[in-house]
Amino acid sequence: MNMQLPLKLGRATGVVMNAMAEGAVLEGNLTCKGDLRLDGTVQGEVRIEGRLVIGAQGAIHGPVRCQNVHVLGKVNGPIEASESILLSATAQVNGDITAPKLVVEEGAQLSGRCTMQALRPVYAGDAHAKTA
Q: For residues 46 and 43, what is the distance between their CA atoms, to the nearest angstrom?
């Protein structure tokens, strides 16, 4: 599996990259310190302190909160990023998105509202963080 981050926005966290492989399914909330490459499916809230890359086969059914997110797969729920969101041509997002920076490639599908504003940092342990 290629562990190189394709995300062009935001800064690297300097933390080891975590991964969830294609075919893996998690029913429940997922929190992670550092970066995560998701090629499996999560049915629940995803909170990442660093970068989140949702691979072309990856899917999230629930809210997403992180610093930076690069979507190549599917998200059914709101996305909140404290730095940036990149929707690749293969992205399918059904939910509101909130971030200071947004890049949408031709072909990406977005069904929801978009709010571009500065947010305070989103941390996995911050139960009082702003939600979209």
A: 9
Q: Choose among 60, 53, 49: nearest CA to 5.
A: 53
Identify whether the C-beta of residue 85 lies closer than 8 Å to the C-beta of residue 67: no
Read off the tokens for 3: 């562990």
Distance CA 86, CA 39 (A): 16
Bridge partners of residue 66, in order along the sequence: 81
Task: Write the CB contacts of 74 (distance below 8 Å, at least 6 apart in sequence).
Answer: 54, 58, 59, 60, 91, 92, 93
The pLDDT value given to residue 6 = 45
Residue with the two structure tokens 């935001």: 10
User: What does each C-alpha distance from 120 to 39, 43, 48, 61, 112 come to in angstroms?
Assistant: 28, 26, 14, 24, 22
In angstroms and rounded to an integer, the radius of gyration of the C-alpha atoms of the chain is 13
Tokens matching residue 97: 């998105």
Q: What's the DSSP call for residue 16?
A: P
Tell me the pLDDT tens digit for each residue of 53-71.
999 999 999 999 999 999 9
